[in-house]
Amino acid sequence: MKHIHSNAVQTYDNAIEQYALGQLSPAKHMIITCQKKLSKEIADRVEIEDAVASSALEDISIQPLSPAFIANVLEVLPPQNQFDHKISGNDNRAEPNFDAIINNVKWNRFTPLISIHNIIGSRRTMGAERLYLFRAKAGTKIPEHNHVGEEWVLVLKGSYTVNGKTFNKGDIQIVNVGETHSLEVSQAGECVCLTMSQEKIKMIGVVPRIASQVIGV
After folding, report:
1. Share of the chain above pLDDT 90, in %
2. What was the pLDDT predicted at 197?
């Protein structure tokens, strides 16, 4: 994906385009929806892409839907109760108070430094997309690891640095399959991210590998 970095936030052109076309999975859609709530720039870009998508649809001849269409759509969507959380993919709701969400969700504390709150799926259901909140205290370091599946990370609070690049509140980092890196949370304060992952990460080194099993990422 083509990376875009302005004075406001970091995002990816293809992600915005796919969002407007309705081509993203529920987990990825929710991440872009939340980024749109955090950034007027992203909201404006989505509005432009929506207009382009609507214009393109006007040139497409309408074909009748097969009787099985609705059944097929419902089959691939997660159960509705998985969306009954403080963070919602509904674009029409009022802007969420992310600080209130962070303070009120039920956190699972895996280490003194790291907590997780599952929204869709869990580490036991990997192989399908998992969506979760990741909370790390200031200065937390996550050792070098390899990404077996794609990962999308939206920063809701604080910042972290990967290979010399810093991601701040409102930024999205898209990690490609096979990418290896380590990361460090800013010393200025805790970092909270909304994360979509497709597979568990593979830690490099025996001790980090054991720790990842405990943390659940």
Report:
1. 26
2. 87
What is the CATH superfamily name and number for domain 3-215? Answer: Jelly Rolls (2.60.120.10)
- Tell me the three-class secondary structure of 149-202, residue by residue: CCEEEEEEECEEEECCEEEECCCEEEECCCCEEEEEECCCCCEEEEEEECCCEE
Q: What backbone torsions phi and psi does residue 12 show, to the nearest 5 degrees? A: -135, 130
> Exposure of 81 by Cβ count < 10 A (0-12 exposed, 13-18 middle, 19+ buried)?
exposed
4: which 2 tokens?
């875009």
Report helix, strand or coil for 189: coil
How far apart (Å, rounded) are the C-alpha atoms in residues 131 and 140? Answer: 21
Residue 130 C-alpha from the chain's centroid: 9
Q: Are 203 and 211 in contact (CB under 8 A)?
A: yes
Q: How far apart are the C-alpha atoms of 51 and 64, rounded to whole Å?
A: 24
Q: What is the pLDDT of residues 54-110, one digit of tens each?
A: 766 555 555 565 666 555 655 555 444 444 444 554 554 445 677 777 888 889 988
pTM as predicted = 0.73
Q: Give the torsion sign (CA, 135, 169, 1, 85).
A: positive
d(CA 160, CA 184): 5
Report whether pLDDT(16) > 70.
yes
CA–CA distance, 203 with 217 (Å, rounded to integer): 10
